[in-house]
Structures are given as structure tokens and as C-alpha cells.
Write a structure and sequence with these properties.
By secondary structure, the protein is of the alpha/beta class. The chain is 49% helix and 17% strand. It has one domain: 2-enoyl-CoA Hydratase, Chain A, domain 1, CATH 3.90.226. Bound molecules: coenzyme A.
Length: 260
């Protein structure tokens, strides 16, 4: 498999998928989302692959969010499509994959980056990782299931605070919230993920795929939540706040929201 924006390393029954746009802190543009979707689909079909690790290239970021430069000029319709397509093609795909997916969060996991990590079956972080959903600082809401999966993982009150403040939490806090399962120094991150993946690959892949289905089924009554998120995400693209938020980011200045 050859992709422009991702690398795939295969080591017997384990695949490591590396998002490879380090100069842009691995920000998710449409092409990367497409590559990831294709890669996960292909790896899931390969019965010799028993676990997948997803990580970012470089030492600074897992993924610093959806690519703001790409969507800043989108209309409401395009914004809604962006959210709906991404969710279907990648985030829901990963969550429902029959092969276990571990997110190795090796730095910033912000916006779409944290949403991607949350779509994985569980997360392990390096001690320099920083996580958050900064979307409201750009005049938009968390998409790709962020408003649904964050409260599932850390509880409603903590999720509300993190979303409304657009703040970042460090790896230790993420551990205490249950957002990640372990925190280790960066050089130990992939070895730990490999070790845990090794344990997983000794077990029945069929039973594991059924277990993933069963665990996910318990959270499936939130279809309305996902739908509301897509519609609200799209609506933001018609606001003056969104124009100001994204323009300010690209002009590297603080946003002054008009509130309309
Ligand atoms: N979309 C597009 N480009 C991004 C990006 C994103 N989400 N995140 C980072 N980049 C780009 C920067 O624009 C910069 O590009 P440039 O060198 O061409 O100017 C490059 O990646 C490096 O980022 P920079 O901001 O210079 O690094 P930093 O160490 O000063 O700051 C962050 C790191 C993560 C705090 C900062 O990049 C940031 O706030 N990113 C956006 C986070 C966000 O709001 N994500 C949610 C999007 S929905």
C-alpha cells in the first residue's frame, strides 16, 4: 500500500499506521482522511493483521486537528458534508473496525486529532501529549463525533468544560480522566503499544471482533447526537464567528468574536 500522507509499517500480525505531515503537525486534510479510510479498510480485510497502532509522525504531534486552511472558506453545505463524510469514511469506520485499533498519542491531539484518537478502541499517551477540543475558539463545534465520544469517555461535566473552554489537558490529567490508559515517556510509547498489541494478537480475533461489536452496541443509542452534531457543525460555517475564528487562526492573531 502506497499513500501520500501516511506510512504503514507491517510487522507480522501488527500494522502501524503513521500520519505523515509533520510540518503541519499531521493536520488532517481531506486527502489524509481518504488515505486513512482506505488503509484501515484494507488492513481490516487482511486476516493476518490482528492489531493496528495509529500514531503521528515526528515528536510533536499525534494530529493537531482538521486542516483549518482547507475548510476556512467552506459554506454551510460544505461544512456539513465535511463532517458527515469524515465521520462515515473514517471515524465511525475505525470505531466499528473488527481489528483492534490502539491510538499512540505522541504529542498534540487537538480537535480532529483527539476525535480520531477517541474513535480508536483505546489510547496510550506519551508524557508530552496535550489533548483538547479547541473548535469553539475557531467559531465551530467539535465534529467527527467529538461531542459524543468525549462525554462517553470522561463524563458530561468534564467534557462540557473541555469543549467550552477550548482548553488543553496534559497527559497526566488525561490519564486521571480515563481518556488514556497509560502515560509513558515518548521513547517507550510504541514499545508499550507493541507489547499490549502482542497480548491482544494471542487471543481469538473472532471473539475480539464480537467483543468490539458488543461494547459499541451499548453506546449506539446516540444516533441523534451524531446527527445533531453534523447539522450544528454545518450551521457554524454560516456565522460571522466562524469567519473571524478561522481567519484569526490563519493570520496568527487572537480572534475577536462578534457573537453572530
Ligand atoms: N490546520 C492547519 N494547519 C495547522 C494546524 C491545523 N489544525 N495545526 C497546526 N498547523 C500548522 C501551522 O499553521 C504551522 O504551519 P506553518 O509553519 O506553515 O505556519 C505548522 O502547522 C506548525 O504549527 P505552529 O502553530 O507553528 O506550532 P506551535 O508549536 O506554535 O503551536 C499548536 C502548536 C498545536 C498549539 C498550534 O499549531 C495550534 O493551535 N493548532 C491548531 C489547533 C486547532 O485549533 N485544532 C482544531 C482544528 S478543528
Amino acid at each position: 500500500m502506497n499513500f501520500e500522507n501516511i506510512l504503514i509499517e507491517l510487522n507480522s500480525s501488527l500494522a502501524t499506521v503513521i500520519i505523515n505531515r509533520p510540518k503541519k503537525l499531521n493536520a488532517l486534510n481531506r486527502a489524509t482522511i481518504k488515505d486513512l479510510g482506505k488503509a484501515f479498510k484494507t488492513l481490516d480485510k487482511d486476516k493476518t493483521i490482528r492489531a493496528i497502532i495509529l500514531t503521528g509522525s515526528g515528536e510533536k504531534a499525534f494530529v493537531a486537528g482538521a486542516d483549518i486552511s482547507e475548510f476556512a472558506n467552506y459554506s454551510v453545505k460544505e461544512g456539513k458534508e465535511l463532517a458527515a463524510k469524515g465521520q462515515l469514511a473514517l471515524f465511525n469506520l475505525i470505531e466499528n473496525l473488527s481489528t483492534p485499533v490502539i491510538a499512540a498519542v505522541n504529542g498534540f491531539a487537538l480537535g480532529g486529532g483527539l476525535e480520531l484518537a477517541m474513535a480508536c478502541h483505546f489510547r496510550i499517551a506519551s508524557d508530552n501529549a496535550k489533548m483538547g477540543l479547541p473548535e469553539v475558539s475557531l467559531g465551530v463545534i467539535p465534529g467527527y463525533g467529538g461531542t459524543q465520544r468525549l462525554p462517553q469517555l470522561i463524563g458530561k461535566g468534564r467534557a462540557m468544560e473541555l469543549i467550552m473552554s477550548a482548553g488543553m489537558i496534559n497527559a497526566e490529567k488525561a490519564l486521571s480522566y480515563g481518556l488514556v490508559n497509560y502515560v509513558v515517556p515518548q521513547e517507550e510509547l510504541l514499545p508499550l503499544c507493541n507489547k499490549i498489541a502482542g497480548k491482544i494478537t494471542n487471543n481469538s480475533p473472532v471473539a475480539i471482533s464480537y467483543a468490539i461489536k458488543a461494547v459499541n452496541a451499548g453506546f449506539k443509542n446516540n444516533a441523534k447526537g451524531f446527527e445533531t452534531e453534523i447539522n450544528a457543525f454545518g450551521s457554524c460555517f454560516g456565522t460571522a464567528d466562524f469567519r473571524e475564528g478561522t481567519t484569526a487562526f490563519l493570520e496568527k492573531r487572537k480572534a475577536e468574536f462578534p457573537g453572530t
